[in-house]
Amino acid sequence: FSGSYNDLTNKPVFTGWDTDASDDxxxxxxxxxxxxxxxxxxxxxAGYLTSENDGDxxxxxxxxxxxxxxxxxxxxxxxxxxxxxxxxxxTDDQNLAEVLSQNNSAGNTNITNxxxxxxxxxxxxxxxxxxxxxxxxxxxxxLGVTDVDGYxxxxxxxxxxxxxxxxxxxxxxxxxxxxxxVYTSNLTNYGRHYTWTAAMRGxxxxxxxxxxxxxxxxxxxxxxxxxxxxELRSNLEQFTFPAGSNGGQLKSTSTLWLSPNxxxxxxxxxxxxxxxxxxxxxxxxxxxxxxxxxxxxxxxYTAGISLEYDNNFWWDWSGSPSGAYSVRCVxx
Length: 332
What we know:
rod-shaped; 332 residues
């Protein structure tokens, strides 16, 4: 026997060959079913390399490293380097104007480490703006204000507030209208005393901060509300313990106050004087106390604060709107 299949006798005859090519495998990977969809689906047995196997770094997956515009394979000095310069659009040289032209939103994040502005269109930091606002407040306090009668008043900064450092003396509202309900005993030292109606010029009571009531105050100034008195108290209590024992910080050290003028330091220059009050046709408690009224009140009462010669306290005060009291205005 020759060993050739063709020389066999009685060879089997097979007639069931598949002659339909439409269902044959194309040999293309994409035509496979149940293909793995992630590298992790391969196993080391299937040839997925996770570490150096044969000591040859040229035949396995390497890390890519971009240095400047040059892309290269790490740990392979013979690998071809690719210069990406022709494919870059120089976005690394964009200026802020070009970035903002794409989108001017910072995504609710802070832009930090800005220098203080130098040129007219430079951006300013919050610290710089806060410092500038503080300087403006100091300047406004230093300038004071002159009323429609020509009386000039010194002013004092208390935190973020600017208060008159003298009692109001005007006899006219800022438009020149004469004020009714004004009383005077010692204009130079105590200013004038105003009924609540006169001070408010008919405005409704206000508990807002700022009060929004100009009343008898000069243009650009207003009567203080109870919250504004409280803000003043808070500014003082940063330096005082216990709370409330801060009336002396507002009282002048003048001998106009009766002795002992307890706790008087006038450390901020508020210079509260013992003007007393007017009621029933006469002045009372001069040299003993002072009362400052604000926008809190009605036909039955008026309210404000009082300071006294024989203690160091700040007193919340209320009394008759028929009386007349001292006024200190606050800068708008």
